Amino acid sequence: xxxxxxxxxxxxxxxxxxxxxxxxxxxxxxxxxxxxxxxxxxxxxxxxxxxxxxxxxxxxxxxxxxxxxxxxxxxxxxxxxxxxxxxxxxxxxxxxxxxxxxxxxxxxxxxxxxxxxxxxxxxxxxxxxxxxxxxxxxxxxxxxxxxxxxxxxxxxxxxxxxxxxxxxxxxxxxxxxxxxxxxxxxxxxxxxxxxxxxxxxxxxxxxxxxxxxxxxxxxxxxxxxxxxxxxxxxxxxxxxxxxxx
Amino acid sequence: xxxxxxxxxxxxxxxxxxxxxxxxxxxxxxxxxxxxxxxxxxxxxxxxxxxxxxxxxxxxxxxxxxxxxxxxxxxxxxxxxxxxxxxxxxxxxxxxxxxxxxxxxxxxxxxxxxxxxxxxxxxxxxxxxxxxxxxxxxxxxxxxxxxxxxxxxxxxxxxxxxxxxxxxxxxxxxxxxxxxxxxxxxxxxxxxxxxxxxxxxxxxxxxxxxxxxxxxxxxxxxxxxxxxxxxxxxxxxxxxxxxxx
Lengths: 245, 245
Fold this sequence. Notes:
The structure is a homodimer. The first copy, chain A, is 70% helix and 0% strand.
């Protein structure tokens, strides 16, 4: 049996989970930050991660549809507004397109999802299934990877600007926005989880939800690494650097 | 076999459907508008319809979660923002609480859903299931009852202000807002349906979606009429006028 944790003990467990499992520790990110990837490998990364970006407002709308409290919905809808913006030139998805185009990808090809790895598709869609099928507490807890994203982004942006001469702050504008959005979102979700996880079972479920999310992000990088770094076995139909898109 | 309709023919069919089936024609509404209901019957109406109001942002979030186009989502999210507002004092749900309180109901009792008719619950939840399970086109088409709401609201507000001395414009503020929101929403949805229903099957499905929604609204009034007008058989557990809430 597991003991009931105090809210602060629960927070410490969530922190420890992220330190152990967040994808900033993945070898693909280490290579990326240190200048060890070719432009084509960065293209593969931007292309695949686009699907994750595209699904974020969808998974947040699923969560919104499960919230019966208008006050909760008023907070959560900000995530959707941030991501979709107020026009096609605005918002997180538009900024991800700018990043992909800055790396030399064709926007329509990226949007088509034609070249993404099947493992990317499965991982990203598992996230939507998770927030639809698990409890609202678990759905919210699965967003807590945002606790770890600002530091990771700071390291990433500094590393990429230093190590790739074709990467400019404008290309990385997506990440700069997330530096202010992610802490706001993470603080809200963390407060919610600390307040609403009132039994040992709920607390363990919240921790498992964060583990699930870390696994999901990690598996996306495993698939990228396998296809485009080592051993470099690109599955049939996936993006092939240099080929017509 | 059914022929492909032109977009304008489809619109005419949708119009005809609403004229035949929209709940403005229900005897309960006729009584309501003409001053034929007691305050306790208006209370039963406001109480039950609250659940419909409460579910609207949830069904719209489900629809949002099914939209893969950010441009579509940017439009559709306005419905959620209108309904939830920017605070507990703002938005469609808050205005419905004001209406219920103006009729002498306790806000917490209304919010608890404790006194609603089971038929109200089933009808309202059928709407959420519909937008989750049917095609996005049908989910959007089911909102087209809004084509008929401004005229219905105008008649209702005029009738209620004239016939019930305890009803003031402030109590009916919900409806005044809908006079501008509903046409904007209905125009968008109608344009979408006219554009996206490209086969006879899709056009018939869109018409059936509007019929479903009309049936759903109508059945809520049937249940109110049965329980609180004729024969006045209130089912066990439902709101009993005059009893402690």
